[in-house]
Design goal:
With 380 residues, the chain is of the alpha/beta class. The protein is 43% helix and 14% strand. The strands form 2 sheets. It has a 7-stranded parallel sheet, sandwiched between helices. It has a 6-stranded parallel sheet with strand order 10-9-8-11-12-13, with helices on both faces. The structure holds uridine-5'-diphosphate. Belongs to the UDP-N-acetylglucosamine 2-epimerase family.
């Protein structure tokens, strides 16, 4: 059934977020919303990430207003978490009656926000739409495919993401390629860090003389043989170069139960998750980054640091093509260690696949103009 969307002159945007990368992505978009006349934003924090160093620190450092709603939902199985979020977000939507719901990325908070809104016929805008790993075993892949399907506007970060959506049959007028909001953030904060000071000094790290690692994906943390391969590869690497590893709480909890924990702690600099500026410093001045994070893969490229991706596939295929990123499926420790050794000192091609650093501006300007837009006639 076709239904026209009409907006009030002043639009209320309700943003649902809950996980670390979403705070970072939303920060630039929220600044743009705050400076656009006629737009207001309500923040709903689901609570998916709740530790101070996984949540609060980003709101403070990135100058974001505090969440208007904190739903305090975390832990449990995927279904239980998503279900509880769905119910709680729906209550907020009924109360706030926003014109648009804005969601980011591919977490349970993304899907719950989008689904609650779509069922209430509130149009959904998905930032970071169209990414695909083509691996349905990943919870993130399920979340992003379903969120795209029920979104009205699909803001894509790359040409590859737009092409994925076109291939899946989405009409061209739903796909708005704006670039990557993480690039906007990196441009803003990347120039603010200097080498050798602060955290680097505390850890005794010198410029281009250490490896930075992050691991948090379920496909690695929940598969002991994969986690073992990563741990062994990082310990072996630490014999030649310092390795620093800010541990995601879930990863720490799993690792602490393993037989390798004490060897790991002895050879690798294990630290708690760090704030955004500390992370930017660690990334920018690293010799190499080894990660299974989506955001960190891109940040490695933004700071021209070679990256070894500890996964079987990546959504950021353009970085592999350009020679900045090497896929190292963590099945055999020796192969991961070799991938790290080979990538050290390498440099990819000069490419610019993530837009011009104005993705947030483009998203907000698009939303601001929706009244006059042909998109307001789209069927939902
Ligand atoms: N990050 C951070 N501190 C850390 C680890 C990561 O600030 O200790 C930032 C990182 O710079 C990037 C984002 O968190 O901007 C990536 O989040 P994460 O790896 O949790 O999720 P993904 O990007 O894989 O969805």
């Amino acid at each position: 059934m076709s239904q026209a969307i009409s907006f009030r002159p002043d639009k209320k945007i309700l943003t649902v977020l809950g996980a670390r990368p979403q705070f970072i992505k939303a920060s630039v978009v929220s600044h743009a919303i705050a400076t656009t006349p006629g737009l207001t934003e309500v923040f709903v924090h689901t609570g998916q990430h709740f530790d101070a160093n996984m949540s609060e620190v980003f709101f403070a450092e990135l100058g974001m207003k505090k969440p208007d709603y904190f739903l305090d939902i975390h832990g449990g199985t995927h279904g239980a978490m998503t279900g509880r979020m769905l119910e709680a977000v729906e209550q907020v939507l009924l109360q706030e009656k926003p014109d648009i719901v804005l969601v980011y990325g591919d977490t349970n908070s993304t899907l719950a926000g989008a689904l609650a809104a779509a069922k209430l016929h509130i149009p959904v805008a998905h930032v970071e739409a169209g990414l695909r790993s083509f691996n349905m075993a990943m919870p993130e892949e399920i979340n992003r495919i379903l969120t795209d399907r029920i979104s009205q506007w699909l803001f894509t970060p790359t040409r590859a993401a737009s092409a994925n959506l076109q291939r899946e049959g989405y009409p061209a007028d739903k796909i708005i390629e704006v670039g990557d909001v993480m690039y906007d953030v990196a441009l803003h904060y990347g120039s603010r860090v200097t080498p050798g000071t602060g955290l680097m000094a505390q850890l005794g790290l010198t410029e281009k003389n250490y490896v930075l690692a992050t691991v948090h994906r379920q496909e690695n943390t929940d598969h002991p043989e994969r986690l073992t391969a990563i741990v062994e590869a990082l310990i072996a690497t630490a014999h030649t170069l310092p390795v620093v590893w800010p541990l995601h709480p879930r990863t720490r909890a799993v690792l602490q139960q393993t037989a390798q924990w004490s060897a790991l702690a002895q050879h690798v600099k294990l630290i708690d998750p760090v704030g955004y500026l500390d992370m930017v410093q660690l990334e920018k001045f690293a010799a190499l980054i080894a990660t299974d994070s989506g955001g960190v893969q891109k940040e490695a490229f933004f700071y021209k640091v070679p990256c070894v991706t500890l996964r079987d596939e990546t959504e950021w295929v353009e970085l592999v093509d350009a020679g900045w990123n090497w896929l190292a499926p963590p099945t055999i420790a020796g192969a991961v260690q070799a991938a790290i050794a080979n990538a050290l000192g390498s440099r990819g091609q000069e490419v610019q696949p993530y837009g011009a650093g104005d993705a947030a501006e483009k998203i907000v300007s698009f939303i601001g103009k929706l009244d006059q837009s042909p998109f307001s006639e789209n069927p939902r």
